[in-house]
Amino acid sequence: MKLQLALDRLSWDRCFQLIEEVSESIDIIEVGTGVIKEYGMAIVREIHNRYPNHEILADMKTCDAGKHEAKQAFSAGADITTVMAFSADLTIKDTLEVAEESGGEIMIDLLEVDSRNRMEELSKVGVQLVSLHLGKDRQQQEGFQTDLFSLVKGLDLKIAVAGGVNLESLPRIIQEKPDIVIVGSAITGADNPKEVARQMKNMIS
Ligand SMILES: O=C(CO)[C@H](O)[C@H](O)COP(=O)(O)O
């Protein structure tokens, strides 16, 4: 099980401070969508240069022009880029093709998608990695529910989990054995990010 640090709504300098503090405990550095909108591929490139031994996920949240956006992410040094589950199958196939050519991976973000039929379609298209994701805005109403795992049960997919995961919810989530646990605010907003990341890493190891 890998721990992915999500860097969202942060300045360039704060992103690097946080990575430096928690780098020993994390496996994947996620460059959040808002951070990419602010700084573009330059920050993905810089993280890749400074942390060559960490996997990098560019949270592009691509939903169209798949080839172009996947090429942007991989050529900047990302190992994984995200594509929305509601995208056209053609968009998803295009990004999977670029990933194969680049030696990278596509993570399909299941934000607001809860159809089992869509999961089966995604599997048929060749998707291998999906993220069960409770969005930031929805987190104001509810916390991450482990029932979400039923959506992907029995399918041959790697599973990531995101959406307000914290030290309190992590034990329940671990029981479902996801491949990747994505944590943003619980680490980036903590008084001691290094300690929270260390505890989380210990829990999942
Ligand atoms: O993709 C995201 C937002 O769209 C976040 O990276 C993900 O939700 C993790 O952050 P947090 O733990 O703060 O919810």
UniProtKB/TrEMBL annotation:
Gene3D superfamilies in the cross-refs: Aldolase class I (3.20.20.70)
Q: Please provide, alphabetically and separated by semicolons, the GO molecular function terms listed in this UniProt record.
A: hexulose-6-phosphate synthase activity
One Pfam family it belongs to: OMPdecase
- Where does the source fall among the domains of life? Bacteria
**Domain named Orotidine 5'-phosphate decarboxylase: which ranges?**
2-200
Q: Does the keyword Ribosomal protein apply?
A: no
- Enzymatic reactions: D-ribulose 5-phosphate + formaldehyde = D-arabino-hex-3-ulose 6-phosphate
Q: Tell me the protein family, please.
A: Belongs to the HPS/KGPDC family. HPS subfamily.
Q: Would the keyword S-adenosyl-L-methionine be found if you checked this record's keyword annotation?
A: no
Pathway field: One-carbon metabolism; formaldehyde assimilation via RuMP pathway; D-fructose 6-phosphate from D-ribulose 5-phosphate and formaldehyde: step 1/2
Which InterPro entries does the record associate with it?
3-hexulose-6-phosphate_synth, Aldolase_TIM, HPS/KGPDC, OMPdeCOase_dom, RibuloseP-bd_barrel
Keyword vocabulary terms for this entry: Carbohydrate metabolism, Lyase, One-carbon metabolism
Annotated protein name in UniProt: 3-hexulose-6-phosphate synthase
EC number, UniProt record: 4.1.2.43
Report the NCBIfam families cross-referenced here. Answer: RuMP_HxlA
